[in-house]
Write a structure and sequence with these properties.
The structure is a single chain. This protein is α/β, with parallel strands linked by helices and 491 residues long. The chain has 7 helices and 31 strands. Strands 1-2-5-8-13-16-20-24-27-30 form a 10-stranded parallel sheet. A 9-stranded parallel sheet has the order 3-6-9-14-17-21-25-28-31, with no helix packed on it. The protein has an 8-stranded parallel sheet with strand order 4-7-12-15-19-23-26-29, with no helix packed on it. Helix 1 packs antiparallel against helix 7. The two termini are 16 Å apart.
Length: 491
């Protein structure tokens, strides 16, 4: 019969083997996100080539009443004499990192007939909320023009298109649009404004998944942990926090043809400078109009690769493009019109960086941009060189064509600047820097001081990401195992 200490040693060795297995599972993860492109420069190159080809076609068919040279619009508007008979053609028209976003393509058409939002936990058939939580792909359209005042966040499931063409659809109220841990969502031709914080209520995220939500910030569109998202031809303004936020490991996103006005912190890309997964964030920002009453964050970038191409920046009060955490910013063929304030002429801002030693190697590039009224862009890293990227082999079209490319930015038909139509006034710019909270109140979704608590408090159901692994604790337990085993074997 073996001595007692031998049995104890075997037990401890088996326990150590178990911990070895757990530690193996906690090795560094592959940080590549779903749908992250391995060569973002090649995507930027393809976007530039697509724009050039579309403009060339426009010049060859100058008698056409349809083509504008904008490759997205020409794709679905000029494909046939009646786009409404083939709405799902739109899904073939995205460019950039969000190219290939399906939305509800090949799903059935769902017609919203009821503008109410009376029961976020158990939505009524015929409402927008009922449509967006379904599990099947749906192409959602509207029976008529309508004003939808949300009681809580509108949580959108995968493979959905919200298509407002042919109607004037206004979405406002509490929470607005939440795109959380899903894929393939298209938001098109919608007015979104006067969005307020929400939370503390039970909300449905699918027909079978209902839970109590934490507090939201009052963003117009919140995108987190999601991929293949396309926001096109929307008009956004007057929200409590951001107009569009893209955070927490989101990628493969295109934000195009939108009309942004009357807001402080317009667009946040990246959750936190230390949130490593956002290194894989890739966003195309194309053909947007950044207009009256904007202050900053057009966008504000943390990590990732951001392609800003052929946008019209007509107004800002602090800066247009900001960043921290070493993002790559590729600015091509934009028009930047600086404000009259002599202290706000710089397009760019390295947020919380006091000297160029902190950001000299960040790759920020300007190519073919038009600088008006004293505007200037401070390039850095490889952006200082003309050999910055593969995309430099195809010159972007001159920013002088931005008027043509952005002439239809925002919602088609009617006013694109909603001026806060629900009666809520814009609080305006209160001065100060680009801190996490900003000047318009609300909570600081983008603030590094808050960590992840605000986000994880909002999450429920199986779509939530796993909590951080307990690697340090397991290593400590392993050390105890090794020391205990060594002591026993010496008996």
């Amino acid at each position: 019969m073996p001595p007692p200490h031998f049995s104890i040693s075997i037990s401890i060795l088996l326990l150590c083997l178990f911990f070895f297995t757990l530690i193996e599972a906690t090795k560094p993860l592959n940080l590549t996100l779903p749908h992250q492109h391995p060569s973002p420069d090649s995507v930027a190159l393809h976007v530039t080539s697509t724009i050039n080809a579309s403009l060339s076609r426009r010049q060859l068919t100058s008698s056409s009443t349809c083509g504008t040279g904008n490759p997205i619009d020409d794709c679905w508007r000029c494909d046939s004499s009646d786009w409404s008979s083939n709405r799902q053609r739109l899904a073939d028209c995205s460019i950039g990192f969000g190219s290939g976003t399906l939305g509800g393509k090949n799903g059935r058409i769902y017609v919203v007939t009821d503008s109410s939002d009376n029961n976020p936990a158990n939505p009524t058939p015929g409402t927008l909320r009922y449509a967006v939580i379904q599990e099947e792909p749906l192409w959602i359209v509207f029976s008529s023009s309508m004003f939808i005042r949300l009681k809580q966040e509108l949580i959108i499931n995968s493979y959905k298109t919200i298509d407002g063409r042919g109607a004037a659809v206004h979405i406002t109220g509490n929470g607005c649009l939440t795109i959380q841990y899903v894929q393939h969502v298209i938001i098109h031709n919608i007015h979104i404004y006067d969005c307020k914080p929400s939370g503390g209520a039970v909300v449905a995220a699918s027909p079978t998944k209902v839970g109590r939500r934490g507090r939201s910030d009052g963003d117009g569109i919140s995108i987190f942990g999601s991929q293949k998202i396309w926001v096109d031809h929307c008009s956004l303004n007057h929200c409590t926090d951001g107009l569009i936020d893209v955070v927490l490991g989101s990628t493969a996103i295109t934000i195009s043809n939108n009309y942004f006005t009357h807001h402080d912190e317009v667009m946040l890309l990246g959750h936190d400078d230390k949130y490593v997964l956002d290194t894989g964030m890739q966003v195309t920002i194309a053909f947007n109009h950044f207009g009256q009453g904007l202050v900053q964050r057009m966008p504000r970038c943390r990590r990732g690769y951001i392609h800003v191409v052929n946008n019209d920046f007509t107004s800002w009060k602090m800066y247009a493009i900001g960043g921290s955490g070493n993002p790559t910013i590729n600015s091509q063929g934009n028009r930047y019109s600086a404000p009259s304030d002599p202290s706000a002429k710089e397009v760019t801002k390295r947020v919380d960086s006091t000297d160029d030693g902190e950001w000299a190697n960040w790759n920020w590039r300007t190519e073919g941009d038009l600088m008006e009224n004293g505007a200037f862009f401070v390039a850095s890293g490889e952006g200082v060189s003309t050999l910055y990227s593969k995309a430099s082999s195809v010159e972007p079209k001159a920013a002088a064509l931005v008027d043509q490319l952005t002439q239809n930015a925002g919602v088609f038909g009617g006013p694109r600047d909603d001026q806060g139509q629900s009666g809520d006034s814009y609080s305006g710019y209160g001065g100060g820097g680009d801190g996490g909270t900003g000047a318009i109140g609300g909570t600081s979704r983008g603030s590094s001081s808050n960590g992840d608590n605000n986000f994880f408090g909002m999450i429920f159901g199986n779509n939530a990401p796993p909590r951080p692994r307990l690697t340090l604790l397991l290593l400590l337990l392993l050390m105890i195992c090794v020391l205990s085993t060594s002591t026993l074997l010496l008996w």
